[in-house]
Amino acid sequence: MAQTHHLSQTAYDRLKAEYDDLTTRGRIEIARKIETARELGDLSENGDYHAAKEEQGHMEGRIAHLGAMIENAEIVEAPEGSEVVHPGSIVQIVYEDDDAPERFLVGSIEERHDDLQVVSLTSPLGEALLGSSAGDEVSYDAPTGVTLTVTIVEIES
Question: Do residues 21 and 69 share a domain?
Answer without folding.
Answer: yes
